[in-house]
Design brief:
Distance between the termini of chain C: 33 Å
Number of domains of chain A: 1
Distance between the termini of chain A: 12 Å
Number of strands of chain A: 2
Number of helices of chain A: 21
Oligomer: heterotrimer
Largest interface: B-C, 94 and 83 residues
Shape of chain C: flat
Order of helices and strands of chain C: HHHEH
Chains: A mainly alpha (about 525), B mainly alpha (about 575), C mainly alpha (about 140)
Structural class of chain C: mainly alpha
Strand order of the largest sheet of chain A: 1-2
Number of strands of chain C: 1
Largest sheet of chain A: 2 strands, antiparallel
Shape of chain A: globular
Structural class of chain A: mainly alpha
Radius of gyration of chain C: 25 Å
Number of helices of chain C: 4
Number of domains of chain C: 2
Helix content of chain C: 40-55%
Helix content of chain A: over 70%
Amino acid sequence: MNFFDQVPALQIAVPLIGAPVCVLLRNGRAAWAVTQFCSVICTLLSCMLVAATRDGTVIRYELGSWSAPSGIEYYVDIVNASVLLVVSFISAIVCLYAYRGAEKEIQQDKHYLFYTGWLLCITGLLGIVITGDAFNAFVFLEISSLATYLLISLGPDRNSLTAAFRYLIMGSIGASFILIGVGFLFAATGSLNMADISARIPIADSPRTVLVAFSFLTVGLMIKAAIFPLHAWLANAYHYAPVTVTALLSGTATKVSLYLLLRFFFNVFGIQFSFGQMLLNYVLLPAAIAGFVLMSVVALYQSDLRRMLAYSSVAQIGYIVAGICLVSPLGISAGIVHIINHALIKSALFMATGCIVYRLGHAHIQSLGGMAKQMPITTAAFIASGLSLIGVPLTAGFISKFNLIAAMLEQGWWIGAALILASSLMATLYIGRVVEIMIFRKPRTSTGTLEVNEAPMQMLIPLWLLIALSIVFGIFGNETLSIASAGAERLLTGPLAPALVPESAYLSTGAGQ
Amino acid sequence: MTLAQPAFLFLAAAAGCAFIRNAKLRALLLLAVPCISLLWVALLDSGTHATVQYAGLTLEMMRVDGLSRIFAIIFSIAAGLSALYAWHVRDLMQQIATLAYAGAAIGGVFAGDLLTLFLYWEVTAVASVFLIWARRTHGAFSTGMRYLLIQVLSGVLLLMGLLLHYQDSGSMAFTSMTLGSIGTWCIFIAFGIKCAFPLLHNWLQDSYPAATVTGTVVLSAFTTKMAVYALARGFPGTEILVYIGAVMTLFPIFFAEIENDLRRVLAYSLNNQLGFMVVGVGIGTPLAINGTAAHAFCHILYKALLFMSIGAVLFRTGTSKASELGGLYRTMPKTAIFCLIGAASISAVPLFSGFVSKSLILSAAGKEGYWLIWIALLIASAGVLSHSGIKIPYAAFFAKDCGKRPAEAPRHMLWAMGITASLCVLIGIFPGVLYSLLPNDVPYHPYTFGHILTQLQLLGFALLAFVFVMKTGLHPHEIRAVNVDSDWIYRKFLPKQIKRISPTIGILVSLPGKWLANAVAHSTAQLAKLSEPRGVLARGWSINSMVFILTVVMGLVLIFNFGKV
Amino acid sequence: MPSKSNKPYDFAAWFTWVDNPVRVRRVVRALLIFCAVLFVIDLLYHRHAYFGFEQSRGFYAISGFVAFAGIVILAGQLRRLIRREENYYSPESIDGEKYPPNELSIIDNKQRSEFTDSQQNESITSRSTAHMDQGGDK
């Protein structure tokens, strides 16, 4: 048993152990150090997993050597390895940023709890991604959700409590829908292991139980992934949570739910059932398109920067879902690329917003006049990541947009492509409007000047790291694309089952591949 | 194989600008980069340079041939001259925008494939809007937004078109295309927006007068000429362009005649000049393409010169409105002289640059037998004389004395105008230099006796007509007013209609919504009780409505899924 | 009229004729003669032409005059149709608003007629930097 065989377990164990350590330390700084350490370790571990699965290898790890399907199995292929990397990388970067970023927003004596919540949230998110067990996924979903409620409620605003509460309600409904779905799947197949379910699922005559499971999972995942029109919790949560938390969540939480959606509908139910028989794209695609068109419009009218970005997130999720709905290699890889790129872009945007909030105490768009003069590095960061959000060439956003439109056109859906372009026009407007105010408007203070300094370096460096990465991904887009198309290929091979059909085969493999 | 290209030089300088504290140093950089770029372009070998892999495609970043070289040369010159003219500008934003904008335009003309073209196409749109916003007024903001929207619209159409074209033809190469598929039409309209085709032209007249004094000079050089280049590369000999171009030469002259803002007069005049170039592209013969390239070259110079002189007037008096100006020759005589040289050039007076370039296009139209088009161009030429040749200098520097005694333009502006003016005259006297740069090898002699004679007659008698209309009082007075153009539709008509119908729609939407929400509120009374004590949950989307929507979606999904069984 | 005392050369002298009705009349007369001469040459000289109608005598002269006068007159009629007050679109459109003066260097020498370039440049620099510091107030 060598070290590498244990990587999947360590991926979860490291942050999970870190969390109680944080509580025990009862010290904000120390808790931060632990969180930072765990996030970096997780990033390294997921790098190893990505490297190992690049060639299409599938890593199956049986927890406690209890063999699947009765035991819990961790299942890693290129699809979830890349999502693992995104989650842990964003956590590592935002954690670096949180050192200063969280200091004003969260009471000093609650810092260690904050980082505990952070690590639990990451544990949950990584767990959802890595597990190959449907019920286990639900458990991790609950862990991450509960931690997220905590993180949101730590916000400085009184509204953060109500925002957390609303998220709690919606999140719980979503999670219980998923639980119901998993329960019905269990009833139909007698198994909780995803690969096993996909092998046993009686899709041919599609009995009621499977249909109900399918319906509940659809809606449950739509809530969790904030797909329009079930997105409303997201705007409040992102708005009132501490900006640091928003930066973390925007890059991770919804992306993980989207991954789960991909996994369930492509690999567990199978493409033939989900899209051929159940016509899932007829449900998701209108929602996605309405989402990115309407939410871009809504974003245009927001007066708070955080809220604007939150609605823009819903719109961007619409892009991802639209790509997935194409069920073509190009479309799915565009969706996966955008999962990665949007995580980078939106986290960077929220981090830039966090710098503004750190100095100004608020993020009212109309009061941002004179920012360019007082906080030039932050403004430049906002512009750079804003351009990426719009999808200007040479940025990561362009790679996603380009591939998404190409995928749409490949299917002959040029109206869909036109709508994406229209929505990116609106993105130009809502970003342009903020940039214009930041650069050209006078400050709205009585003295006519804005007396703030540039945000601290400890916040700017991680911010610019993300931006640099998104530009690198924009210029050398082939790398992310090849990962994404490998992932798309993996998803399109259909049910997970073929890998483990001979039951004796995987009983004997034990841990590792 | 090297990746280096002039566009990168500009873009790197733009990025570097942000880190230079000293504004004078930045201004120097602004001046130095175009000079280096000019040398670089002049020394480039023809052929393809810099092939890269991007997003799974092979891109030809650098294609150098006669057509791209002449545009890159004039763009470099224009960038240098406008940098000299903007020597006094200390605004970091404008300096960065100018460099990025000029660089993107040069990058665009070297693009060997549509994706690279699109890349630079978008950068020009984003960079140039800062030159408008830099005026820092409310009006400039909304104009800038309209401008940005239209420019980016052109970009997305191009993107859509190139992808569709790629689907159809399997090639991303930017070569001559034939109109037919949706893809090529998208590309064509994308070019047409930036080229200010009739009815797609409003952004130009809307935005150029809104930019800063120096910003307008920069704007006038690049966007539209990049589009002309793109048309010349992508759609040479497309007959519809001949007619589009003819309309373009004609309709702006009427608007220009009665426009009060002199910078907007010049914007209309720019539109009219673009028409000549578009006709040249539409004819598509080697001579006509030569004419388009030559005319673009000369046009950039004299239009910049005219914008510079009116800009100097604005700089010294605070207005560019004809009704507020007049008689400025007393204290700004040098500016007046440069303006007159620009006016003579645009009016195609022999020995000035317009004469040697416009005649190429007219000859090409004549040779190909487009007699109606030829007449249209002739009328348009008279129109050019009327609004650009006479109205601009007359209204600003002569006419009745407005009482203002502004100081002469600052020295750097005079130098910029002086160099531009001498280029106009030099090209007019020695057209051989310009002709040697042209993409096609077609001998042409502008200075024949017959040609000079006819042109002088046309201009002379048109001047007589000017005297005639002045004496008879038929000439429209300069009055403070705006003239509506087709942008009225989206600036006035549509907003009004939307305002009118939106209450009706609101009522239609909200009534059943309220009723349903009430019904659901009762069923979720338990939740409501939880939220009521604090009363905050009522803000934004309440849990009630969230759950209500959830219920509806769940219901729909169930119906949908079970409906198929 | 600006005085010429201190300036090396006043280019304004080139244009003073436009304010003198007698000299304007003289220039118009010269233009008439110039046109008449051109017209006569056109009658005598056989031009190369692309189209038949272009060959006809005085084609360019007539078309130049008619086109110019026609455009001006038609444009005058067009104005009746499309003219609106300056802030028709919005009171805050660029047509109605003043150009922000801090960007400019407005110098109106109603009293002084002397002004050297170096002074001007200094004043621009100081003005623009001053306004940068104030955050560009109106």
